[in-house]
């Protein structure tokens, strides 16, 4: 099962991604998590990416595409994966399609978690990760609106998008996601 999980920061993507990968038994590929680990380890990717994470901006596409390609080439991804936080631009979505097409493969589903913006900001302020300072949150929402919302339109055009109401208890949201995957 090859899946992409989309949704704005604060939609509860991390929690649901965790539950989905346990149920579906595929690796969880969180690009945000990969970048935070690279920064912690002090790798060259980490050093390049840090300024973008600290300011809430997107890391340049070429770095991200390379990072994801290398990860998807690993054997544990052969039977499927859940991408969380990638693609975040139409260019990344196209690169992912190209990568899969070259391997005679394609995505099985794209799941979009939807929550209204006021609720999102409330959740993000309650969470307070390092990059959850109010001005960084604002910048991440701008990046989402301007660069990532078009990704939903891209997948909608290709008829692979399932939009899921992400308001409700984690169990309710999980049930909606699973029923979309099983469709
Ligand atoms: P996340 O944990 O998914 O919210 O990602 C945290 C930060 O990592 C984002 O605010 C971006 O700076 C960076 N990032 C993660 N995934 C991507 C991506 N696909 N493209 C560009 N930047 C990304």
What key phrases describe this protein's structure?
183 residues, 5 strands, 5-stranded parallel sheet, globular, single chain, Rossmann fold, alpha/beta, binds adenosine monophosphate, 13% strand
CA gyration radius, whole angstroms: 16 Å
Number of domains: 1
Globally, the shape reads globular
CATH T-level fold name: Rossmann fold
Q: Identify the bound ligands.
A: adenosine monophosphate
Structural class: alpha/beta
Determine and state the CATH class.
Alpha Beta
Reconstruct the topology from this structure.
Blueprint lengths: L1 E5 L6 H12 L3 E3 H11 L2 H12 L5 H12 L8 E4 L5 H13 L6 E6 L2 H11 L6 H24 L3 E5 L4 H13 L1
Parallel strand pairs: 1-3, 1-4, 2-3, 4-5
Bound molecules: adenosine monophosphate (AMP).
The site of adenosine monophosphate has 16 residues, from helix 2 and helix 3.
Write up what this structure looks like.
The chain is α/β, with parallel strands linked by helices and 183 residues long. The protein has a single domain (2-176), classed as 3-Layer(aba) Sandwich (Rossmann fold). It is 59% helix and 13% strand. It has eight helices and five strands, in the order βαβαααβαβααβα. It has helices at residues 13-24, 31-41, 44-55, 61-72, 90-102, 117-127, 134-157, 170-182, and strands at 2-6, 28-30, 81-84, 109-114, 161-165. The protein has a five-stranded parallel β-sheet with strand order 2-3-1-4-5, sandwiched between helices. Helix 1 (13-24) crosses helix 8 (170-182), helix 2 crosses helix 3 and helix 4 (61-72) runs parallel beside helix 5 (90-102). The protein is globular and about 40 Å long. The structure holds adenosine monophosphate (AMP). Adenosine monophosphate (AMP) binds next to helix 2 and helix 3.
């Amino acid at each position: 099962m090859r899946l992409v999980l989309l949704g704005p920061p604060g939609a509860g993507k991390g929690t649901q991604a965790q539950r989905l990968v346990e149920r579906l038994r595929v690796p969880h590929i969180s690009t945000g998590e990969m970048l935070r680990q690279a920064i912690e380890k002090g790798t060259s990717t980490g050093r390049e990416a840090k300024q973008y994470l600290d300011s809430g901006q997107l890391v340049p596409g070429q770095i991200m595409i390379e990072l994801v390609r290398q990860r998807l080439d690993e054997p544990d991804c052969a039977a499927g994966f859940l991408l969380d936080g990638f693609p975040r631009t139409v260019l990344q979505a196209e690169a992912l399609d190209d990568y899969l097409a070259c391997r005679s493969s394609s995505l099985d589903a794209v799941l979009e978690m939807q929550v209204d913006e006021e609720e999102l900001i409330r959740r993000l302020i309650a969470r307070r990760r390092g990059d959850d300072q109010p001005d960084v949150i604002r910048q991440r929402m701008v990046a989402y609106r301007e660069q990532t919302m078009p990704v939903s339109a891209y997948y909608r055009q290709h008829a692979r998008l399932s939009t899921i109401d992400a308001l409700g208890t984690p169990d309710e949201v999980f049930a909606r996601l699973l029923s979309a995957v099983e469709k």
